[in-house]
Q: What sequence folds into this?
């Protein structure tokens, strides 16, 4: 019998699948393999150790104890205590180009799994699994985890943690024997959700070394696992975290696991980002129109909706060059603060006696798009909806979950609740010229039962369905995914939305880190980045406009500030910045993101380089004061070594605060080769802390 194997391969990575003794084995995931690899399994066959198996075992992707595996299996479940252990055999193996579909069956446990592997041209591997009950009793699925093997040189792991207003703090640690689990049990992906779990070599940096990254494409509960066994083998995995009894497969029923989306890169963490960004950009639903410069009025108005104030804001916005204005929380029935109104998606006549149409018309006559805020999954106990249908919330027994921001969560898998939200929000969109909605999700799901069963899985499926239906009914509608800032940013919801609200923290200094790590997976054009007020509302920090503007430039830019209070000078700077953003967004939203391995921890050097290396825009950010007088030279990787570039500093929103008598001469413009820029660098100016400059590098 011919050996069943499939080599999925791109320029930068490969995945080798083999069927060994009926098991599906990932024989390699990493750098591209070439040449004769027929005997790779033989070459890698391990010794027979003392006090060990009589034959080497090949547990494969299912990691079953029946195949001699002693770590965490891929599948866990049972039929009321039976079928607790499985031994799947490959029954069909279908390989075309960079896609492989493998059917595995266990006739004793009466289960079928169809596992899919797709490696795209950017090196992004998407793994899916369909688990079907082919028996005639219920199968209780506890979990299904996608796993990939890691070589021993992966000695460290990197994942992310955070909270409201402080998302995506990196945590890097050594991998040791045992299982490292990062669970997300918020019912939304969450502020503490790790947007990726990445295994690294000790030496891996932004620009060099190997990285093996995974990301789970799911907005409900999930878990990442990194396991190193006492046999020395190690692996990385992810899957949906199922609550007890959440998925029970009746005869003939199928569970579709969320995909695990993975990247191997030999070009460090930036190589990982480049692959994810290209993969995301290649999707048919990726937003392709220029990302409109946005004014979100939340921090200007909060709940004080007042048409006169809004018109004044819109006048200034039009003068600055804003292209989309968003009316945030507070426009709907009895919503005068955060204690009432959620669930009643009708315009409040007390605040808007003529409805929203006059203000929308006003915005449109200025040539600006209008956007509106919703939080459709939520309900305040003080709402007409809750008074009429308290049974529509996610709950267990006769308990009401504890309140969070004075609100509860509607059970969208309840068809009547779903239809209520869909029809009310859809009616607002049908009756007004609204091209964009910001969809918030300001609390976690706990004790989240759906008709007596755990309901996070069905809730997650329902919100995807609702977003898809809104988009189907309202062609061209764009949706921003927000959850108290960056609490629902993941590769599951991404296919239904066009923008993420990166964080409620608009403090540019803190945003530098939040954006830097959110962009590890998400391309900048999908990350909302706003110029906040002079005195940040979250941290109270006072920052120069030039710093706030330089930070907001590297994303889907906007403003979240009462711009009627801006001084004439600030307004002039906002205008030049708006022009700069519009002139350069095509570049910023398509190029390769570069985070330089800058040796001085007091500064960041990051930017975007065109794929053809013709130009780059960088920011040098002085986070904290320099210790030595002169910060480290600024060196720019990824340029054309032999080409000559014009390098100069530009000031889209005024000059930063310098701490020097005269700045480095190159800032006025210098011509120099790509090689010199990469290896020798240019002098960093001495900036006051919390300041940034923008550097343009253009091939001549
Ligand atoms: C949380 C969001 O992140 C904010 O931007 C704003 O929309 C508020 N909710 C409104 O309640």
A:
């Amino acid at each position: 019998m011919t050996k069943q194997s499939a080599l999925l391969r791109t320029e930068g990575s490969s995945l080798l699948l083999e069927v060994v003794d009926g098991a599906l084995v990932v024989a390699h995931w990493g750098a591209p393999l070439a040449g004769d690899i027929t005997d790779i399994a033989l070459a890698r066959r391990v010794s027979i150790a003392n006090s060990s198996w009589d034959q080497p075992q090949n547990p494969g992707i299912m990691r079953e104890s029946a195949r001699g595996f002693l770590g965490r299996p891929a599948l866990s479940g049972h039929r009321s205590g039976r079928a607790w252990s499985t031994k799947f055999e490959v029954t069909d193996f279908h390989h075309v180009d960079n896609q492989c579909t493998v059917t595995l069956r266990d006739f004793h446990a009466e289960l079928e799994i169809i596992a899919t592997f797709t490696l795209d041209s950017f090196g992004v591997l998407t793994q899916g699994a369909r688990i079907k009950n082919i028996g005639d009793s219920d199968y209780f699925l506890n979990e299904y985890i996608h796993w990939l093997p890691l070589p021993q040189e992966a000695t460290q792991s990197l994942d992310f943690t955070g909270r409201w207003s402080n998302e995506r703090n990196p945590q890097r640690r050594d991998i040791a024997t045992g299982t490292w689990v990062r669970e997300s049990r918020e019912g939304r992906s969450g502020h503490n959700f790790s947007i990726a779990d990445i295994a690294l070599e000790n030496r891996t940096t932004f620009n060099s070394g190997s990285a093996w990254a995974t990301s789970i494409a799911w907005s409900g509960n999930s878990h990442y696992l990194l396991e190193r066994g006492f046999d020395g083998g190690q692996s990385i995995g992810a899957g949906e975290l199922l609550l007890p009894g959440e998925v029970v497969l009746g005869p003939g029923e199928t569970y579709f696991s969320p995909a695990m989306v993975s990247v191997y890169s030999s070009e460090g963490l930036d190589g990982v980002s480049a692959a994810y960004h290209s993969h995301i950009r290649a999707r048919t639903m990726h937003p392709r129109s220029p990302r409109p410069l946005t004014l979100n009025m939340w921090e200007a108005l909060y709940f004080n909706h007042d048409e006169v104030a809004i018109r004044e804001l819109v006048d200034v916005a039009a003068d600055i060059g804003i292209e989309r204005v968003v009316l945030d929380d507070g426009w709907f029935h009895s919503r005068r603060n955060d204690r009432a109104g959620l669930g009643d998606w009708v315009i409040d006549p007390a605040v808007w006696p003529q409805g929203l149409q006059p203000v929308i018309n006003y915005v449109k006559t200025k040539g600006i798009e209008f956007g509106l805020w919703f939080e459709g999954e939520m309900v305040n106990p003080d709402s007409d909806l809750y008074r009429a249908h308290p049974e529509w919330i996610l709950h267990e027994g006769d308990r009401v979950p504890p309140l969070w921001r004075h609100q509860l969560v509607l059970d969208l898998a309840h068809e009547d609740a779903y239809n209520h939200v869909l029809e009310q929000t859809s009616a607002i969109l049908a009756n007004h010229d609204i091209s964009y909605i910001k969809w918030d999700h300001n609390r976690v799901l706990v004790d989240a039962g759906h008709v007596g069963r755990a309901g996070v899985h069905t809730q997650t499926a329902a919100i995807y369905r609702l977003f898809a239906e809104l988009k189907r009914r309202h062609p061209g509608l764009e949706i921003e995914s927000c959850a108290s800032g960056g609490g629902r940013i993941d590769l599951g919801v991404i296919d239904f939305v066009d923008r993420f609200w990166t964080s409620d923290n608009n403090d540019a200094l803190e945003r530098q880190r939040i954006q830097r790590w959110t962009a590890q997976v998400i391309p900048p054009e999908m990350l909302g980045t706003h110029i906040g007020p002079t005195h940040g509302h979250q941290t109270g920090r006072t920052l120069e406009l030039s710093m706030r503007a330089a930070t907001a430039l590297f994303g889907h830019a906007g403003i979240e500030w009462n711009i009627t209070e801006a001084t004439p000078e600030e307004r002039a700077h906002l205008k030049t910045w708006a022009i700069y953003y519009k002139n350069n967004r095509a570049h910023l939203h398509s190029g390769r993101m570069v985070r330089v391995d800058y040796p001085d921890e007091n500064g960041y050097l990051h930017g975007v380089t065109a794929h053809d290396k013709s130009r780059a825009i960088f920011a040098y950010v002085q986070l904290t004061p320099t210790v030595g007088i002169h910060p480290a030279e600024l060196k720019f990787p990824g340029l054309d070594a032999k080409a000559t570039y014009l390098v100069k500093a530009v000031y889209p929103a005024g000059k930063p605060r310098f701490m020097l008598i005269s700045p480095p001469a190159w800032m006025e413009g210098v011509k120099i080769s790509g090689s010199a820029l990469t290896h020798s660098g240019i002098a960093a100016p001495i900036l006051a802390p919390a300041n940034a400059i923008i550097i343009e590098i253009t091939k001549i």
Remarks:
- The longest strand covers residues 139-150.
